[in-house]
Design a protein that fits this description.
This protein is an alpha+beta fold and about 150 residues long. Helices cover about 35% and strands about 30% of the residues. The protein has one helix and seven strands, in the order H-E-E-E-E-E-E-E. Strands 3-2-1-5 form a four-stranded antiparallel beta sheet, covered by helices on one side. A three-stranded antiparallel beta sheet has the order 4-6-7. The N and C termini lie far apart (about 85 Å). The mean pLDDT is about 85.
Length: about 150
């Protein structure tokens, strides 16, 4: 009689390994969702910073041919879209030159402890916010760490 050795895993050993992997996955799931929420907040902050810089650059270009404290360009946040535009003083039309959507799960609102109560900033032809306006926003997402930006 020949004895054959059988190698491999028993069903019990396999079930224990699957249970351990499941427990580790359940423990890691909250960390993953927080990471995703914080990533969305960071992405929104980057879009706002890019829009702000674009609006300042457009104001310095002065395509609207304005002078003094008149608005040469503007950045606005409305309906989940960040837009940069300028008002042509001759034709009285607004031209949007840049826009990007922000994640629908992210909330952008004026910062509550700030005098800046609007999500629109106008820039003069010197690239400075017109009439003392400022752009302080609070960015939040469910499960993420809130972020306040002040420009």
């Amino acid at each position: 009689m020949t004895i054959r050795s059988v190698s491999g895993f028993s069903l019990i050993e396999l079930m224990i390994a699957v249970a351990i992997v499941a427990i580790l996955a359940l423990a890691a799931a909250p960390l993953g969702s927080a990471w995703v929420a914080n990533s969305r907040i960071d992405n929104t902050a980057n879009i706002l910073a890019e829009g702000y810089a674009t609006a300042r650059a457009l104001a310095l270009e002065n395509k609207a041919n304005v002078s003094g404290v008149q608005a040469a360009s503007a950045i606005s946040v409305a309906g989940g879209i960040v837009s940069v535009s300028y008002l042509d003083a001759v034709t009285a039309t607004t031209t949007t030159v840049w826009q990007k959507p922000i994640d629908t799960t992210v909330n952008v609102s004026p910062e509550s402890n700030s005098a800046c109560a609007a999500l629109v900033v106008n820039f003069t032809n010197l690239g400075m916010p017109a009439n003392g306006t400022c752009f302080n926003v609070s960015i939040s997402s469910l499960g993420g760490t809130d972020l306040v930006l002040a420009f």
